[in-house]
Specification:
Largest sheet of chain A: 2 strands, antiparallel
Number of strands of chain B: 0
Strand order of the largest sheet of chain A: 1-2
Number of helices of chain A: 5
Order of helices and strands of chain B: HHH
Structural class of chain A: mainly alpha
Number of helices of chain B: 3
Largest sheet of chain B: none
Number of domains of chain A: 3
Distance between the termini of chain B: 65 Å
Low-confidence stretches of chain B: none
Low-confidence stretches of chain A: 214-222
Oligomer: heterodimer
Helix content of chain A: 55-70%
Chain lengths: ~240, ~140
């Protein structure tokens, strides 16, 4: 009774009972089993392997297989493995742009930009018409509102269609900046190294001169401050 | 501030909001008209005005607000067009992008190798310096 009361009072559902199976010991045992099987079957990546006949206490460590029909429900919402953009035609929305096969020749996206601009202009025009209709014949406005709604939905659809493209584009720019950073770092390191080597070379010629001048005590004094300078350089 | 596409999407949503706001304003603050010769405009006392559906604004205020709303709509639309024309990668096809990514990946590998090499060289130089300093310290 007490337990039941607690369950209804908590904001989130209780964790599933098998969470206690994930002890460090079981996890490492499970990983060993996976590795063994992978070696036996000659598969590179052990994590892709599905183990059969697991002992009872390890059974819950293996994630369940993907749903066969590609759909599942969580919190009464249906999700799909393939997260596809719903087609406009499914939702009884008029499509106001040509098929993807008929536009964007050579894979470029200028047509998309043109269509988007056209839609934006249509939105304004339709809004103007709507205000006019509302002033003269409010009953007819409903149709115009549907038009505007369709225009907006079309606009959003075109934008969402473009998202994968934009994602790749951001990846490219991120890689480019990473490349620039790496190169700059390499150059910086090389510069510092060259400088150190030049100093070293300069000193080696000095040493010869000094050896000509001779006396080791003097030499020691002379190189005292230089040694400090090198130590600083090294840092 | 998201990426360009999100900015564009937000701008479109704002345009929709502006549509609604414009109509709402006009609906609430338009002036009252007589429809026939026998109609009369009832002047509502000030304290009750808040509860009324229509709260007429003075002619000049109403006009100015209308012009402002219209101007805002146009500005927003132009903003949208600008955002459209600066969408990233309009002139890249998917194949271009893939090729680009692959090239960059190779270049990154090369650059990383060079970096490691440079680090090694730096360490060698450091070791050299170290020996030089040590030999001087102990005459």
């Amino acid at each position: 009774m007490d337990e039941e009361h607690q369950q209804t009072a908590s904001t989130w559902p209780q964790p599933p009972s098998f969470w206690k199976d994930f002890t460090p010991d079981s996890v490492s045992r499970f990983e060993d089993l996976q590795k063994e099987t992978a070696e036996r079957l000659g598969v590179q990546d052990p994590s892709t392997i599905r183990l059969e006949n697991l002992p009872r206490e390890l059974r819950n460590l293996q994630p369940p297989p993907e749903p066969e029909d590609g759909a599942w429900r969580v919190f009464s919402d249906t999700y799909r493995l393939q997260n596809e953009l719903p087609q406009l035609d499914d939702g009884q929305i008029r499509r106001l742009f040509p098929n993807s096969e008929e536009r964007d020749q050579d894979g470029k996206h200028f047509d998309r930009a043109t269509i988007l601009k056209r839609l934006a202009k249509s939105l304004l025009l339709n809004f103007l018409e709507l205000t006019g209709l509302l002033a003269t014949n409010p009953e007819a406005a409903h149709e115009k509102i549907t038009d505007i709604r369709d225009l907006f939905i079309n606009f959003h659809h075109l934008i969402n269609e473009y998202r994968p493209h934009q994602a790749r584009e951001s990846l490219i720019s991120m890689m480019q900046s990473q490349l620039d950073r790496t190169r700059a770092e390499t150059n910086g390191i090389r510069d510092a190294k060259d400088k150190a080597e030049r100093v070293l070379e300069g000193l080696s010629s000095l040493t010869i001169q000094d050896q000509a001048h001779d006396t080791s005590l003097e030499k020691d004094d002379r190189y005292g401050p230089d040694g400090e300078a090198w130590a600083m350089l090294m840092e | 501030m998201g990426d360009r596409l999100t900015q564009l999407q937000d701008a479109v949503d704002q345009l929709a909001t502006q549509f609604v706001a414009s109509i709402n304003y006009i609906n609430q603050h338009h002036s009252l008209e007589t429809l026939g010769p026998r109609d009369q405009i009832v002047v509502i006392p000030k304290q009750e005005a808040d509860q009324q559906e229509v709260d007429p604004h003075p002619e000049d205020v109403f006009r100015a607000a209308q012009i402002e709303l219209a101007r805002d709509l146009i500005t927003k639309e132009q903003q949208i067009e600008l955002l459209i024309s600066i969408l990233p990668g309009l002139d890249n096809s998917e194949q271009d992008q893939e090729r680009n990514i692959r090239e960059l990946e190779e270049e990154l590998k090369v650059a990383e190798a060079q970096r490691q090499e440079a680090i090694k060289e730096r360490e060698e130089a450091l070791a050299k310096l170290d020996t030089v300093i040590r030999s001087i310290r102990r005459p």
